[in-house]
Amino acid sequence: MRNLDREHLLLVILILVLGVSAAVMLQRENGRMFPADNISDRHEKIILLSWWGNDPRHKYTMEGVNHFADINPDVVVNYRYGEWNGYEKKTKVWMLSDTEADVMQINYAWLDEYSADGTGFYDLNDLADYIDLDAFTDEQKAYGTRNGHLNALPIAMNSHIFYYNQDVLDSYGIAAPTSWDEMFAAGKKLKADDRYLLGMGKKQMFLLIIAYYEQSTGKAMFNSDGSFNATPAEMADLLVFYRQMLDDHVLCPVEMFDKSKYMDGEIVGTMCWISDTQKYCDAIEEKGVNVSRCLYPLLPDAKRTGWYMKPATMWAISSDVQHPEEAALLLNYLLNDPYMIKLQGTEKGVPVSSKAIEVLDGEGLKDTNEYAATKDIMAHSREMNLIISNMEKEAIIEIFKQNADEYLFDRMNADECAKVICKEIRKACSK
Predict the structure, then answer these.
(1) Backbone angles phi, psi at 364, to 5 degrees
(2) Sign of the torsion formed by the C-alpha atoms of 57, 58, 59 and 63
(3) What is the model's pTM?
């Protein structure tokens, strides 16, 4: 059993009790699933693959899996997939009940959550005969290494970027904002027409708030060991700043953010992962809109940028895999095979595999928005830190959001709310 929080044991028991219904649901969710009575008669090695994403990702991944099956006829690949919303909770259930897929797309933060000692996932070093590890630098492999065990390989590197509908900004005489002051000035102009400068998801909102905190205080909100570093007084100031962003239409409430409002110009810009460039930049450019790309805003004389990077997503193999060699062949295919590389392109960001770069160089890689954004980010890599897993933990983000709402709706003052947030986040970090 992995090094997971044992207080979830009751959840595991419940899952086992409901095993029959869960199996039915899994049958509906998975692709290429064979009836149970037929599986025992087959001689192929059966591998389960899991990932999350949007419909285009599902489509090209399934096409790639079919191609892999064609060139590896002795391997059957079943798959489960879904949207990101709710996927993290599903993963926790699968990991706790040892029902995770054999080959898994994982978030970088999951390495610390499920494999702090390096034993939660398979050591890919032991599968070097099947995976071209030479396609990755030692630094890239280090991202997925825990306690000397290579648990995962990065697909691409990721950070946040800002995209703005420049046509809307031009209509107001506004240049794409590059500082906090410019953001507030733009938000106040847009407010007259009930428009917002920025809209984003809950995690992005939290990370943007962290950036301002670190720039204004000069210290990290989360220490390298994951512990929480903010004081109640600092958190109270941050809550006031957050409210001001909402009031001045710099940021729209998380509940209001919808991609369609961004596409229509009601929300003028967004902060997103580079890996979401196709969704928030390419898609709006296809409508004939001019898009501006900006980096993080920075306070004058800030000692920290509050700007973080990480592997976009990673491929890992379950420590409980029954057919590790076949799983390794599939993982290598997903990262290094020319057919799969062309299907994926830069949808998950600019790949880090040297094999993938070589293939995509001939496919117009340097003409993509993802490449341009990645180039901008890497030019500032010395100003950035590797993200701390607690910064992305859903439970911690929810603590901030739910309690901040109590302040925003005047059910608590800033000081009271800040004390609750600090206490609950510290407790969550200690688990």
Answers:
(1) 80, 30
(2) positive
(3) 0.81
